Amino acid sequence: MRVAVVHDWLAERGGAERVLEQILLLYPQATLYALVDFLPESERDFLGGRRAITSFIQHLPMARRRFRAYLPLMPLAVAQWDFSAFDLVISSSHCVVKSVRTGPRQLHVSYVHTPMRYAWDLQTLYLQRLRWPLGRAPLRALLMALRRWDRRTADRVDYYLANSEFVAGRIHRSYGKRAHVVHPPVYCDQIPHSAQSEGFYLTLSRLVPYKRVDLITAAFARMPDKRLVVIGDGPEWARVAQAANGAPNVTLLGRLDDEQARDYLARCRAFVFAAEEDFGIVPLEAQAAGKPVIAYAGGGVLETLRPASNGAENAEPVAWFFAEQSVEAICQAVAQFETTQLSESSAQRCRENASRFATPLFQARFQEAVERAQARYAPSIRK
Question: If one looks up domain 188-355 in CATH, what number appears?
Fold first, then answer.
């Protein structure tokens, strides 16, 4: 069976790329496509030696640093690929590649990390963060046009997969389609764990608007007796640093490699998370390191951060939630967490919770879902 795997873009290794890695392991002969491929050599090992077949955006001026600015051209770019040589097309989509064109004898399975955020749920937030106010009206018009295109092309997918029930709900509201949920993989066996801590709180994230890391740094600037370490880089760096207001208890480390980041996870007191995330792999990686999580009560974490109670009532929690994305709510949640006496089994309970999303389970569930799609939509396609 000839398989194509299509990813929006390859620029850095994040949660979507961990899903992509596992898909490529399941289909080792697959041909890889991406709008652009600017992934550094040091981060390419998970691609198994592949170079993605890219679009014309790869060669446009300043694309390496500003490819997202070519968002208006991305619908045209995905329409120019020819997948006629393939039996199965698997798209890994958080932007536009769920809308690739396939033929009547091909099966298109789309793993949707989220419908396009800036065109749907988070349009208002992205418009508010635009530095040039006069650009908001034309940008709003562009995003509305992208939303119409995104919905109009929803029928190009034969079988939808979602990374959480939260995203499945978004898919239904945005496209009117049902999606089968396959939670992303958590690399539990690669994460060092410890019941001990060095007393600091940690957040680890790409610094983009919806992650709301600025709220976390602002909150800890108000709590000078509590240390916060921030790992990550992105366009919100200046806003995040400004929110910290020079507080000596807040340390911004920038981007670290996986090994360094996991070392911090193993040594922190607790992980703090303020995003309404589609699924939330990093909070579960913190759990795999044996650490409790303080998180905003929204999005995919409501499905994942619960006690591994084995049916026991009044089980010790592995996560503490705050009800709104605000500095005050984060401060209150941290204070509540610090009044809780954790038992000796707390770290093990965190790891048990994360293990429900271990990599082998993702592989089995994903392959089962693709086989179900093959049986339902393309009975002539077999391995």
Answer: 3.40.50.2000
